[in-house]
Amino acid sequence: MRKSNYLSAIYIWLIASIAIVACGPAAQDNIPAARDTAIAIADTMRVTDEVYDTDTEYETLYIVVADTAKDYYILQRSMYALHKATGIVVDTMRRHYDEQKNKIVLAEDDEDEMYRGDYYPRRTAGTSLSLEYYSLYDNTGTTEDNIALVAGQYETRASADSLRALIAPHAPKIFVREAQMYTGCMH
Fold first, then answer.
1. How far is CA 65 from CA 1, 5, 81, 165, 174, in A?
2. Rg of the chain on CA atoms, in Å
3. Which of left, alpha, beta for 126 (phi over 0: left; psi -120 to 50: alpha)?
4. What is the pLDDT along the chain (187 residues), one digit of tens a residue?
């Protein structure tokens, strides 16, 4: 081992040892502010759990739907044709159609252990093409197997209408739908 590598290893070990001793639980017990802050955070978490309100976890979004169908592969072809015609990015979120499960799912090796092999919806505002279950946006009895070719999700109707106007020559069935999207934690 070269002398510089040896000195670097000793230096890193020394700094890590000091940090562990200085920042460990015993050191924090001797500092009143650290102890008081930990208690305040614990109290806040307890209160938050008691008054948790899911109504604030929803956001109104305007969904630009280029088309709907029950056949995933028809919409997938339409999605890539729309991409080619408009240049709008396709974002599959690493999802695909699983023939055995008969649904859109995340890859089995996805980093999200909770949703891998299952459907996870697109929930944020922005412009990109994706295939989503239309029942996310319509709770008036739409069947779960109805799929939407989504071109964008926006916080304002004006933004959604602008994209609709841009895409309309390439997607004659396009429309904008107002939806209450759950934006809270899904884990």
1. 63, 59, 15, 12, 6
2. 25
3. left
4. 555 554 555 545 444 444 444 444 444 444 344 334 333 333 333 333 444 445 578 889 999 999 999 999 999 999 999 999 999 999 999 999 999 999 999 988 888 777 788 888 887 899 999 999 998 888 776 677 899 999 999 999 999 999 999 999 999 999 999 998 877 676 6
Half-sphere exposure of 7 (CA within 13 A, CB side): 3
The separation between the first and the last C-alpha atoms of the chain, rounded to the nearest angstrom, is: 47
Instruction: Enter the pTM of the model.
Output: 0.68
Could you tell me which residues come within 8 angstroms of residue 35 by beta carbon, excluding any fewer than 6 positions away?
A: 28, 29
What is the residue extent of each domain of the chain? 3-52, 56-182
What count of Cα atoms within 13 Å lies in the side-chain half-sphere of residue 179?
27
